Amino acid sequence: MLKLNNVSVNYGAFTAVKNVDIEVHPGEIVVLLGSNGAGKSTTFNSISGLNKPSSGEILYDEQNIVGFPPDQIVNLGIIQCAEGRNLFPGMTVQENLMMGGYVHRKNKIHVKERLEEVYEMFPILKEKHNESAGSLSGGQQQMVAIGRALMGDPQYMLLDEPSIGLAPLIVEQMFAKIKQINDGGTSILLAEQNANAALKIADRGYVFENGQIAVQGTAEELLTNEEVRKAYIGA
Amino acid sequence: MSRLLLNKRFALSGLLLLVLVLPLITSNAYMIRILILTFIWTIAVYGLNLLAGYTGYLSLAHAGFFALGAYTLAILTVTVGLSYWLAFILTLVFTSIVGALIGMIALRTREHFFAIYTLCVGYIIYLIIYNWEGMTGGVRGFIGIPSPGSIGPLEFNSQISNYYLVLFFLVLTIVVIYRIVHSLQGRTFMAIRNSEDLAKTIGISTTKNKLIAFILSTFFAGLAGALFASFTRFIGPEISNITMTFDFLVYLLIGGIGTLSGPVIGTFIIVWISQELQFLQDYRMLVFGPILVILIIFAPRGISGFIIDWNLKRKAKKQQIESMKDMENNQEVKEG
Ligand SMILES: Nc1ncnc2c1ncn2[C@@H]1O[C@H](COP(=O)(O)OP(=O)(O)OP(=O)(O)O)[C@@H](O)[C@H]1O
Ligand SMILES: [Mg+2]
């Protein structure tokens, strides 16, 4: 289980995340909803070890991972697919994916198998494996970003706004893939502004406002919650 | 694609053949001397390229490490009295260890702070060499450094034998750098250059890998320095001066930072132009300055990067034309 206990994160004097409690149980999809600047990415980065919480603890299977270096956290099986389809622009699609297998670099056979699995999930990437990552469409780039995170064999995958800037039809396909990844046994923590699409596949969710959790509940509860509907679904 | 590769192979072997037979067809000792020095600078520039070009950390202590290699070899051979090749190997080990220690501290900073920090490190090395007269000879310099010791029947007393020795190390350097750049280690460096946070999120220990890049760069600086000391047999503190670092940097920028052929191209072209413009003396910089500025604006990845991009563009254009032709053909089929 991944568990955040009373976590706060500061940028200088500014507190971006305040006393946050989050739980992700094995096999779940949990969504963090929140508008721009609410603190979703900050929370993700503190789980990944990219920034250090000023207080609180982050437990992974009972072990406090606060202060662990990021590469060790990846090795434990918590892998983030960062916001904004951040790819290695000078590398081909396949090279990008292979970089995701970095933590398993000593086990070449495993990496190869993983690559085939990713290609099975996203056949278009196999077709374009030799093309430069920068030449792909937005949706395809997001597939590379997700595929690259999958290459590391995550137990827990942190997906930061995978739908941002994508056409509605592509968003739908993307969420279907995320569900498929989850069905394969990977627990998922998903940051989103697209509440409708995200809650459809999620088990539970938290709503962030100004770095704090304003509402939480099961996906059905949040979908029917008046405030949530007003703020994120527009109905 | 394969034709391009073949052409490249052909050009490379031609070039190698040329530098191999050059001393046999010319008796111009001055030219051979300049070529040997150019080979040595190139090795140093390759070291700088690995760190500044591929990993994205601009070190301004490079001449310091070059001088460290040169003076360590001088001290180990002359003062300590070790045999040449033992001293040579110890020099490489020593510069790498010093590189590791300095790198550990320097790499806690980044971007311009890293540049400033390494600038200070380079200056401190200069001050030490300049002031520690008992060890380094201070301003007077260090004289009487032996030529490379013989290996079996191979002796390195003549200029031509030194030419081949240095050329051997240059080719070795290029091969090693080529292998590194095309390995996972090389892609790891480039991942760090691209974005350290992204590199971290895929599990790369940036601390460790930046240190590896730093040590490798000091290793090649030390190698170049050691070769320099035993070729010129006399060294002075000016080789650790910041102007020397800037020379390396200019070679790298003009040739193409972060490219494989950049260090060779840049060093050869600039050394050659400098020779041609020698009559201008220090006013040469009046020519170099504007060239450098124009190049950075229009070809930020130097000559080599410019050629690479140009080739890519040409290829893309060709593909576009072909796909357009395909479309026209299809239309004709439909209409017909
Ligand atoms: N490196 C930083 N330094 C200072 N402040 C930051 C930094 N990164 C984020 N912030 C601030 O912290 C707050 C939370 O930002 P964060 O990026 O976590 O939001 P988010 O929920 O991910 O938003 P978005 O949906 O736009 O990605 C914002 O007010 C932001 O301006
Ligand atoms: Mg964000």
UniProtKB/TrEMBL annotation, chain A:
Residues 2-235 form the ABC transporter domain. One of its GO terms (molecular function) is ATP hydrolysis activity. Keywords: Amino-acid transport, ATP-binding, Nucleotide-binding, Transport. Coiled coil: none annotated. One of its GO terms (biological process) is L-amino acid transport. The keyword Cell cycle does not apply. It holds the Pfam family ABC_tran. The keyword Oxidoreductase does not apply. Belongs to the ABC transporter superfamily. This is Amino acid/amide ABC transporter ATP-binding protein 2, HAAT family. It comes from Piscibacillus halophilus. The lineage of its organism: Bacteria, Bacillati, Bacillota, Bacilli, Bacillales.
From TrEMBL, chain B:
The chain crosses the membrane at residues 33-52, 59-78, 84-107, 114-132, 163-181, 211-236, 248-273, 285-308. GO terms for cellular component: plasma membrane. It is found in: Cell membrane. It is a multi-pass membrane protein. Signal peptide: none annotated. GO terms for molecular function: branched-chain amino acid transmembrane transporter activity. It comes from the Bacteria. Keywords: Cell membrane, Membrane, Transmembrane, Transmembrane helix. InterPro entries: ABC_transp_permease, LivM-like. PANTHER family: HIGH-AFFINITY BRANCHED-CHAIN AMINO ACID TRANSPORT PROTEIN BRAE, HIGH-AFFINITY BRANCHED-CHAIN AMINO ACID TRANSPORT SYSTEM PERMEASE. This is Amino acid/amide ABC transporter membrane protein 2, HAAT family.
